[in-house]
Amino acid sequence: MEPWAEKGDEGENVRITAQLLKAKTGEFALESILLLKLRGLGISELGCLGECASLEWLDLSGNAITHLGPLAALKSLAVLNLSANRICSLEPLSACESLQSLNVAGNLLGSLQQLQCLAGLRRLESLRLHNARAHLSNPVCATGAYRSALGDLLPALKAIDGERVSGRGSELYQLCRDLDSSLEPGGSGGAGSPEPPGAALPWVEEGYWERRPARRSSIMEEAYKQFNDVLQECRELSERADDTISQAERALSVRSDPSSYVF
To answer: What is the mean pLDDT of residues 203-210?
Structure first.
């Protein structure tokens, strides 16, 4: 076991401590941590994680976490990965008002009622309960209609289980699904005579494929601000150096004039 790891009551289970967080990030103050990756460390207790008040990106996947209490203090948290844990309640996340993306695939969530606490998160756009590629799911996903029910429960969602349900890309995805359905036996395109084609219409709205400006995160904004401050300081130092050199050159030119010496 690493020197920063603290054993829990069940032997090898790990509790998050200030020493662990500082060792993983290199930060001296917990409130300075913005990004944190604690994947697959055997963590069972979140400990002092709530003291990372500025945390925006957090990966706790592949651990043994059951309770999320300390996460309620993370008001700036935007991206959270809790996949492959032992979570059966998301109630503390209702206080994470900045949360935009949440991955809880591979846990113990058994009903949509356990997701009701997320309804107040106005910025939440992406929610993953099932990951087929990683073979991670939740008991609630056993019902085939859970996605549509989830869309009704959380209408602001733009992506469920990695698939777009609204916003950019959702129209094309739905069109492909409709085409697949029409080609299946018994589908709307499998019986009767085909209707004569009408005028061709665009698949997506005008300007859909235009490149959108990248959305800066608060981390990038702070980095740009610090860079511009340093650049401005360098310019000021350069101007001072030019003035000093000019003064020195004028002083030397005066001294080199023979008439300036008094005998």
So the answer is: 63
Positive or negative, the CA dihedral 155, 101, 90, 97 is negative
User: CA–CA separation, 87 vs 101, rounded Å?
Assistant: 17
More confident residue, 143 or 259: 143
Q: Could you tell me the two tokens for 107?
A: 């846990």
> Of residues 170 and 125, which shows the higher confidence score?
125
CA distances 131 to 5, 103, 137, 162, 250, Å, are 30, 9, 6, 8, 74
The count of residues in the chain is 263
3-class DSSP assignment, residue 32: helix
How many angstroms separate the CA atoms of 150 and 156, rounded? 10
* Residue 152: CA count within 13 A, CB half-sphere: 6
pLDDT tens, position by position, 129-180? 999 999 999 999 998 788 889 988 999 999 999 888 875 555 555 555 566 5
pTM here is 0.63
Tell me the sheet residues that pair with 136. 131
Closest of 97, 72, 168, 88 to residue 129, by C-alpha: 88
